[in-house]
Every structure is written in C-alpha cells, then in structure tokens.
Design goal:
The chain is mainly beta and 89 residues long. The protein has helices at residues 45-50, 79-82, and strands at residues 11-17, 22-27, 58-62, 68-78.
Length: 89
C-alpha cells in the first residue's frame, strides 16, 4: 500500500534536476508496465534513488560507477488524477 507524501509506485513526481536547473515531471511505474527505454520505472537508477523519499528530500541518482546527479523532490501526487494534467502534445 502506498503512503501519503512518499514516493512510490504510480505516483507522479516533480523532480528538480540540479545539474540541468530544470523541473521534470514523471510517473513511477513497474518495469513490467513501461517500455524498456523509459527511465521512470522503479528499478531504474532514478526509481531506486527516489523510492521511499518525501517532498523536499535531496537525493543522489547514481547512473553508473562514474556518473550521477543530485535532484530534489518538489512534489508527489497520486497517479489517478494526474493523467489530466499531463498532456502528450
């Protein structure tokens, strides 16, 4: 079961990527539900880094042994109503 205000499956997360100085929005899904080129599944480096964290947390996303970046969780919303906000065009 998912906790309120904590990153988890099917939550929409707004993440501030420090290196890029931009906010990105994505939904955390299981690797079964997403296509393999997507980076927002729970087993990806990003998914592992933020899973279980709260709004305002600063996390280190380890891409590989030589590379990674810091990000701050700006907001977490439940997935059900967020589809209305995310437009594909």
């Amino acid at each position: 079961n998912s906790q309120e205000g904590v990153v988890g499956l099917n939550k929409t997360i707004e993440l501030y990527i420090e290196e890029m100085e931009e906010v990105q929005k994505f939904k955390l899904v299981t690797s079964v539900r997403c296509d393999s080129i997507e980076e927002n599944h729970i087993e990806s480096p990003l998914g592992k880094a933020i899973n279980g964290h709260k709004e305002g947390d600063r996390v280190y996303v380890k891409v590989n042994d030589k590379m990674g970046y810091y990000a701050v969780i700006r907001s977490i919303t439940d997935g059900d109503d967020s589809e209305d906000e995310i437009r594909p065009y």
